[in-house]
Amino acid sequence: MQKLFLTAILALTVSSSAFAKKEFLDHTNLMNHGDGHLMDMDGGMVMGQNTDTLPGGCDKIAATEEITVHAGHKYAKEFPGRMFAFDTQEYQFEPCTKLTVHFVNDDNIRHQWMMHGLPRYLYPKGMFHLEVTGPGKISGTLIFPPNDKTYLVHCDISQHMEKGMKGQLKIGKGSGDLPSIPGVTANVIQDDYSNSIPEKVLKKPSTAKEKAAAKMAAAENESAISGILIIGLAAGLVLAPILSRKFKGMAVGEVVSVVFEMIAQAIGLVTKLILGLIKLVLPNK
After folding, report:
1. Closest Cα to residue 164, out of 93, 68, 87?
2. pTM of this prediction?
3. Which of 102, 166, 191, 229 has its CA 20 to 30 A from that of 267?
């Protein structure tokens, strides 16, 4: 009894520590792995950082900007049906801007702020990526190319983008709006929070005619189920003695092998019958 009590106390302690709010970390001590890839052992990562190389077509840095982006569950409250979001869903900058992004994760889970479609000769895999596991902050810098384009910024953790964590970033005039950006553009598939159950299903039969129809439909369903059940029981009674003699003395592996072989033969027979019917129905060419 004492051991059981101690085990319960230990389990409660471990679970409570696992769900406790983690300490906020400022990820500033990052190891540089080359090609703009920096990371630490505490769940912070920057990919595609570029602080000084101008993209082709940029004669100089047009502007130097800084933004702070927050990510978390609480920012999705204003978007019905969404679970996660950034605090800002739309950004706009001049071409050739040098931008430093301070990314703050306000949740106890992993979030990202990333964009794709950048020039691959300058950004490995065409990507700029900030990531923080648990509450914390990380910063990264990139220089935008000179063309007018709209980029998707999002969290690439499984389903986080689908649950609302995405936005759009326009360079110059941009190249149009992206669909399904929370609070900015309409969804491709619009959420429907109306009652999806047809009224006729919810409505109880009131008149004698409706009650009689409902009773008849229930009887038909019951008779159909009973018929299928009877057929299944009859087939089982006929096949049971045959199968028991066939499988007598066999190991489990042998039984499985024989069953699959029988299924294959049955499929082959049905296929031949179907092909034969097709030849009879269709004219010969």
Report:
1. 87
2. 0.63
3. 229
